[in-house]
Every structure is written in C-alpha cells, then in structure tokens.
# Entry
Amino acid sequence: MQQEVVVAAVGSVPFAKEHPGSVDTVAASAILDLFRSSGIDSSIVEEAYVGSAKGGSLVGQRALRYAGLASGLPIYNVENACASSAVAFNLARRSIGHGDTDVALVVGVDQLSTLPKGSLPVQATEWDGSNGINNPVVYAMRAQRYLHETDATVEDLAAVSVKSRRFGSMNPHAQFRRPTTVEEVLGSRPVADPLTLLQCSAKSDGAAAALLMNRERASALGIAGPKVLASQVRSGEFSVAARDITRPDITARTASAAFEEASIGPSDLNVVELHDAFSIAELLYTEELGLCAEGDAAGFLASGASSSLDESGVVVNPSGGLLSRGHPIGATGLAQIAELTRQLTGVAGDRQKAGARLALAHVTGGGASGFDNGACVITVLEAAG
# Structure
C-alpha cells in the first residue's frame, strides 16, 4: 500500500552572489535552519538525498558532516543539472511512499561563485556547445521565435522581470530585492538579443532543505505538513529533426503525468513556481503548464492574472523565481519546494497567496545536443486539512 508523504519542515539560506565558506557548509546551514526553525530532532532522519550539479564528489557526506548528521545513515548523491535536488526529492518521496523508510532529509546545494565568470560551461563533447550554443543563446532564439509568432513584444519580456523583482523584494531569501521597471530592464546590458542582463538569472550560491515523512509518523509528532500529491520526472526525447523551440515538449509531458497522478488540472492551482531561468521561459512554461492558452502568455501576464495574491486565480513565482531569488542550479528545485511549503502553511509573509491549497513546482535540468531539455521535474503539493 502506498504511504502518504508529507513535507514536515523546510529550511534554506538566503541566495547570494557569493557565500562565505564551502559548498559543504552552505548546505549544512540550510539543514541546520530546517531543524532549528521546526524544533524537530535531527536524530529521526533515516535517509538523506542530496542534489547538486557542481558540488563535487560526496557532497552529501561532506555537508551532513558539518550538520552533525554523519552517523552512518544512507546518503544518496544526485546530479541532474538544474533538476538535481528536485530529482532527489522525487527519490526520497518514492522511498517513503514504498515503505522503505519513514523519514528522509532532502538537500539541494550549489556554490557557483567558484566557477569561471560568464555563462555555465558546456560539455566539450556536446556539438551544440562546440558551435557556441549556450543557454543564453538558446533562450534568445526561443524569444525571437516567440515574438515572431505571437503578438508579444520586448516590453512583455521585460515585464516578466519586473514582476519577478517585485516579488523578490518581498522575499528575505532572494538574491535581488530591489524592484525595477520595464525601462531599466530593457536598458540593462545586452546579453543575447532580445535578452538583456535583467532578463537572465544570475549564478548564485545557496542551499535549501526539506524533511519528508509518512503521514503516520508526522501525525505522531503533531506535524500537519503539505501532502505530496505528485512528483514526476521525465527526460528529453532525443531527435536530430527540426523541433518547435517555443513548445518545450518535456514540460508538457511531465505536467500531463503530474496532473494525472494528482487528479487535478491547471485551473485548480493556486501557486506555481516555474523555471524562469530567462524572461522568455516564464511565458513559454506558463502556456505549456496549461495556465493559459497557447500564444496568450503575454496577455495573461499583462492582465495581472499571474501576480495576484488574493484568493482568485494562480500566482506565478511569488518567491521572485530564478530571475530574482537566484539560481544556484542544484538548489533551485528544493528552493521551489521550500517556497510552496511556506505558501501552503501560510507563513510566506508579504507574498502570501490568500487561501493557497494546491501548488506546483516545475524545474528543468540543463541541455544536451538533440534534447529540448535534459530533465524535467514537476511536484504538486496540497495543504494539510
């Protein structure tokens, strides 16, 4: 019989351009924040899953050592680019759901300040990368094509960043907390036409953590955390044929599986945290997740439908998203889970969505030649009660 899994507690550190210490101590800080803020005894942890894209060998063992949890328990290190910690969450949920364990700690961490400046390096064996195709270039091409095929404008792209910065200003864990304007966004340094600097997520240092347990254990401890209704992982489908770069199929496939597992539809959602690594990404993923009609994302944004904190509709990226919260790639999936948990337990402060009951996290992981994305994870949570 499948066990019901709940998010009992979350923890995180503020995302920043540079954190003091090492990737191990950044992760340990998020773990310690989780147990300190929740009052849960860390000795109940039975397994640990640690997602990181750039943390190096045995990042989980090294991090748990500094958090005082290196007691011989099973530790699983997970790498799947930007989706790393969301995949770790999926594996922990599977373990508890199948009855293999009762309590699991999930951590996401990366410290990108240690990497060379510029965009993230591409594997030398990838033929796209060897021809100069990196993430900013890919998303700029998507933006150009989307602008060509719809009524959207460069001002609509900039408006994504404006919304992001407004929400980021309300999030004490966000890297960028100063509101901005469309004019400032469009006037910032060009990166890859039509994208400017303020339309690109920054490389960040940061970590987040979540404690999962089955409902029986949570109830015994007096914990009423959000229920995990769905957690689905998909990889990109390889093809050398031409593809529609404005229609990220991997997201549509993963979303379909998640909605089916959760027995809900897009219109049921109150909060969504999606992978806005670049401004165009929010428009594309808003459509692919079914939050609005194809080609209507700019209108959906302009209407205020994705930014309202009252009880109507759905709010998108109230944390500030990757554009403002920051993007320490391996930590992003767990940062989304932490935000949704805070929303569903009513402790999100000024960015709280009124009456939030159902929430979805969407993260995509990297790219490889011939794939629209390397990996995608979608998680659906439901408030307790």
The chain has one domain: 5-116+202-382. The chain has a mean pLDDT of 94. The longest helix spans residues 23-38.
